[in-house]
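chain below, 303 aa
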Amino acid sequence: MDQLAALLDGPRARGAFLLRALLDPPWSMRVEDQAPLTLVGVVRGEAWVVPRDGPSVRISPGEVAIVRGPDEYVVADQPGTTPQIIIGADQNCTTLDGESLYQSMDLGVRTWGNSADGDTVMIVGTYAMETEVGKRLLDALPKLLVLPGGPLIGLLGAEMVRDEPGQEAVLDRLLDLLLISTLRSWFADHEAPAWYRAQSDPIVGKAMRMLHNNPAHPWTVASLAAEVGVSRASLARRFTELVGEPPMSFLTDWRLALAADMLREPGATIGSVARKVGYGSPFALSTAFKRVRGVSPQEYKVG
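prediction:
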């Protein structure tokens, strides 16, 4: 597992909010849900994303916008259309006066809008929870980007109106695939973070995958170097050059990011989390966690 996969791993990435929107102009929605990540794909027509800061961006059919929260933004038929709808916490939809629009704009299974034959058809997917692991990836992205989404947008749109057993899992995975393919395209054409580029290196990439996949192992630079077939000094030098930090510093950051996410899971204890991420005792995890994050695991867990 790498950090791109880890963004979508675990219960916090599942059960994303998904909606198909059918709209006739004029329409405009101010999104105030503070979600960490939202995808907006256009199947038919066009839409504009108007961020609080920065230029408006047009989304054409077959394209997908990735919007990073928590700042509010507007999605509209045209940049100048005045918002008539507010999307708030938990995807509550209201008028500007606070009147609920949930029932009046309900058009069927996961479908919502002001017209059953709307000129614009959009797919909206919202990841409501942010993980510490995923934050590393999202911080490398601009607050708004638009890229081709390919056939996955049409496939997701077709699946959203189906109401069959297991459909939520199907939709979650399709949304994940759309997000991953879009992020891969972005990083292929733009400046990717050092750790992302390093994953393609035959030596450092292999070492990173070992650390990612087995953080509980008692790794040392020497044991990691032996696994990838190079000298300790060679691995330390190459890893630091490509990733921007030594292997053991990278491992510590990875372990603590995983620990932070695990601590928020129901029933998690500091002892159980410590064992899963490679610390020999709750005390050892607590010491490292507080040194790096400034709070104890217990304070973080209840915070």
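The chain has a mean pLDDT of 91. The radius of gyration is 22 Å.
thats it, cya
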